[in-house]
Amino acid sequence: MRKKVIAGNWKMNFTPTKAEEFAQEMKNKINTDAVDVVICVPYVNLQSVQKVFEGTHIKVGAQNMHYMDDGAYTGEISGLMLGDMGVPYVIIGHSERRERFGETDTTINLKTLKALEHGITPIICVGESQKQRKSGRTENVLRKQIAFALDELSASDVTKVVIAYEPIWAIGTGEVATSKQANEACAFIRGQIHKRFGDSAAACVRILYGGSVTDETANELFSMSDIDGGLIGGASVVPSFEKVVHFG
Predict the structure, then answer these.
(1) Quick check: helix, strand or coil at residue 39?
(2) Which among 180, 171, 184 is positioned nearest to 214, based on CA atoms?
(3) Does the annotation mark 94 as catalytic?
(4) Could you give the angle at the alpha carbon of 206 between the alpha carbons of 194 and 148, nearest 5°?
(5) What average pLDDT does the chain have?
(6) Whole-number Å distance between alpha carbons of 213 and 7
(7) Is the pLDDT assigned to residue 248 strictly greater than 90?
(8) Contact 37, 68 (CB under 8 A)
(9) pTM of the model
(10) Which position among 20, 96, 166, 220 bears the catalytic label?
(11) Do 226 and 187 form a contact (C-beta atoms < 8 A)?
């Protein structure tokens, strides 16, 4: 059995003061080790939120990282830095990073390799746009993104990553893929891993759904055969996130 992952992505929300307050609220409500709970926060909130969750089952992750350890990359944060802080997870290749900040399949692969080098679990995001889905290119897009993201990884490496299927057309729109659509996409991703890395890797890798998941949709989505949890955006910065976690 694959242990489910419920990963909250706070995006660019909460000042350090508010982050600490909200984290404390979540700490008092979420007390389970039945699923892996990860809260991915802005860089400025990492240390304060880590302190709040210290001694709990809740892990803290970053929302991005650079693929170099150091150098002239003003404004960036490296895997070396995150590793030194004891940050165990990082989101890589979120659709907002791809669309608004020029992330490419190549840089996503470099970041994935660097995260693994520093013992950080990458949550690799893949997904198609509405135009791509309507033109029947969903599988081609996913095949290409998965192939690039996992380039140079071994079968053993692949078992250490988490993949999040996030249809771009269902992020921040309130529109959610049906549970059948989401599961089909996650099953296709697992099939690609099976072809390339074998049975064991495909059986072990955890694949999340991320696309306007709420406490009203989580239960059905998380009950599907190939969906191993969720990457939660807007619903992770409201009190009802607790319900999403417990549906996992």
Answers:
(1) strand
(2) 171
(3) yes
(4) 55
(5) 95
(6) 11
(7) no
(8) no
(9) 0.96
(10) 166
(11) yes
CA–CA dist 106, 231 (Å, integer): 22
Distance CA 55, CA 93 (A): 30
At which residue do the structure tokens 């791509």 appear? 132
- The span from the CA of 38 to the CA of 89, in Å, is 8
Give the C-alpha separation, 100 to 98, whole Å: 6
Distance of alpha carbon 90 from alpha carbon 70, whole angstroms: 17
Catalytic residue at 66? no
Number of DSSP helices (H) and strands (E) in the chain, helices first: 12, 8
Judged by phi (left if over 0) then psi (alpha if -120 to 50, else beta), residue 146 lies in alpha
Q: What is the pLDDT of residues 146-157, one digit of tens each?
A: 999 999 999 999
Taking only the tens place, the pLDDT of each residue in 178-233 is: 999 999 999 999 999 999 999 999 999 999 999 888 899 999 999 999 999 999 99
The catalytic position among 66, 94, 103, 128 is 94
Are 143 and 104 in contact by the 8 Å Cβ rule? The answer is: no
